Amino acid sequence: VVMTQSPLSLPVTLGQPASISCRSSQRLVSSDGYTHLTWFHQRPGQSPRRLIYKVSHRDSGVPDRFSGSGSGTDFVLEISRVEAEDVGVYYCMQGTSWPFTFGPGTKVDIK
Amino acid sequence: EMQVVESGGGVVRPGGSLRLSCTASGFKFDDFGMTWVRQIPGKGLEWVSGINWNGGSTGYADSVKGRFSISRDNAKKSLYLQMNTLRADDTGFYYCARVPGYGWNPLSMDVWGKGTTVTVSS
């Protein structure tokens, strides 16, 4: 399954919303009925951190300004109001179909 | 605090071998699947291998199948990646990560280590 993301680079203004799109080459509904689409955030020099799993479930400790949505092959990560700590690279990953694959990443920085 | 810590990275010549280790703490290790993910410098993330809670089920990316072997020792709360016949394109940063649930498929990862560097060069 090929994962694509857009844009690949996203300059944002503090306090403004931001949106990242992720598209899969196949539908991601698993045999268990769930869609295993995960969003990770990687700050410079750090490990990835999971933000969202199963399309829209926010991890504990993740600010509620982050939200995930989508279905089938099209998914979106939205940040309602960007803060300085949100810079870094965002990856989507499909965990439904083996071998599992990541998107190329979207680099978010502050204008 | 739940954490996993990788070790064993280093510099190795093409064709050589390396064994990575990952030690877990702060959670019941044998309740979770585990996985290895790598990152080529300046590039994105690539899933490498996964293993279920008791080691009875494993999976590999095509790029490492037949060369890498994943295993675990629940008594030692440790995960391993035996890497043989290493190639230059195996160079990267290797992360160990926990998979919520007993299996490794389907996949998501909720606890990541800081990673260990593998350099394959002559």
Description:
The complex is a heterodimer of chains A (111) and B (122). Chain A contains no helices and 11 strands. Chain A has 111 residues and is mainly β. In chain A, strand 5 (49-53) and strand 6 form a beta hairpin. The mean pLDDT of chain A is 96. Chain B is an all-beta fold and 122 residues long. In chain B, a hairpin with a 4-residue loop joins strand 7 and strand 8. Classes of the chains: A mainly beta (111), B mainly beta (122). At the A-B interface, strand 5 and strand 10 of A face strand 5 of B.
What are the defining features of this structure?
heterodimer, A: 111 residues, mainly beta, 4-stranded antiparallel β-sheet, 11 strands, B: 122 residues, 0% helix
**Estimated radius of gyration of chain A:** 13 Å
Tertiary shape of chain A = globular
Proportion of residues in helical segments of chain B: under 10%
Count of runs of 4 or more consecutive helical residues of chain B: 0
pLDDT under 50 segments of chain B (min length 5)? none
> How far is the first residue's CA from the last residue's CA of chain B?
40 Å
N-to-C series of helices and strands of chain A: EEEEEEEEEEE
Major sheet description of chain A: 7 strands, mixed
Low-confidence regions of chain A: none
